[in-house]
TrEMBL record, chain A:
InterPro entries: Trans_hexapeptide_repeat, Trimer_LpxA-like_sf. The keyword Transferase applies. This is Serine O-acetyltransferase. Belongs to the transferase hexapeptide repeat family. GO terms for molecular function: transferase activity. Keywords: Transferase. The keyword Transferase applies.
TrEMBL record, chain B:
The keyword Transferase applies. PANTHER family: SERINE ACETYLTRANSFERASE (PTHR42811). It holds the Pfam family Hexapep. This is Serine acetyltransferase. It comes from Desulfocicer vacuolatum DSM 3385. Keywords: Transferase. One of its GO terms (molecular function) is transferase activity.
Amino acid sequence: MFENIKADWGRYLSLTSRVHESTFLRKFHLFYYEFGFQTTVVHRLGAWARTELSSFGFIPLRYLFLVVYEVLHAMVQTLYGIDIHRHATIGKGLYIGHFGGIKIGRCTMGPGCSVHQQVKLDDDTTVGARVWMGSHAVINHGAVVEDDTTLAPGAVIPACGIVKKHTLVMGAPARVIKRNYDNRALIGRPLAHAGGTK
Amino acid sequence: MEICDGGSGDLLGTVQKISETMKNNSIRKLCELLEKDLEVYSSFPGQCVGTQKWLTALQSRGFWAVAVFRYGYWLNHEAQWEKKGLCWNLLKLLFHFANYVIRSATKIMIGEMSVIGPGLFLSNRGEIVMGVQKMGNHCIVDTRVTIGMGEDQVPPEIGDNVCIESDTVVYGNIQIGNRVHIHAGTVLSKNVPDDRVVRGNPGRIQKNTS
């Protein structure tokens, strides 16, 4: 859990350091100022309690954590409008820019993704690594988005659609605009604190 | 709106200092701006006057967000302090707290550095993320709207009397003219001249036929 949270934190730091200098205070600013970070921390807590904590064999502790998670999950959902499904598997280094109307269903997501406001990810979708989803992007159920793709703001990927690697996709329904689009500037340094490089 | 009228005496020295720094009509300007915003809000369900105006101010969540934004803008730019001491920092802290409440209650977020003219109407349903360079007078922004910067980190510039309907994204270093109507579900990232209608994803610019 802590590795994942550290990676998330690194993403936020690297992306906000373009605008602000990352001073000591600014680093802890994230804990109350970035609603997306709080939501991901709550989700990591739930996922950790569900999968890894069970291996201890001490069952009441696990249920305690799950109850705490449910309460925090409901609070975060109503206050910030960010709804991450409890069974969603999300790789480390998730960045949620802004808040409101974000729905991440029961999907699988790779490491180093970026999600913005009003993004809808349906159930049974698969999202690869380092995918940048612009605001108001919608991925319908069963769609597959491969690594290093970029969804422009307002892109709607139809049900069971497939988006190939390194493409830029735009419009509703989504059309391919560029085949070899470099989104490294948008993603920032993925997994900055986890020691991994691209 | 002056805090004290030439009060004499040593005890009032501190109060006088505050009033001197807060003079130059900056508070009056803030109140006039808020009154103009409130006029828009109170005119929508039907004209209301007097105390009814303040009731609409309490009821409409969009106005809360506008009021907090105006207060923050006034604190950063208009309020002429000789040096930013403890009092300014306390007011700033109050702003941060109010901003947090507004964000979680209404999901409206307005960039602190954006310059917005009087008569702004934000939808009471919220879910608006807005950062603009400049915005003119009497603009209407509906629910689930995003206005922000693109890859070049420069937010758009918007003219007077612009109506932006719901589910719209406007982004990038663009300039939108006066009296433009942006329909629901538009994704717009190019310049728009005056008196146009924009619809579609990606947005197409059409002449205003009505």
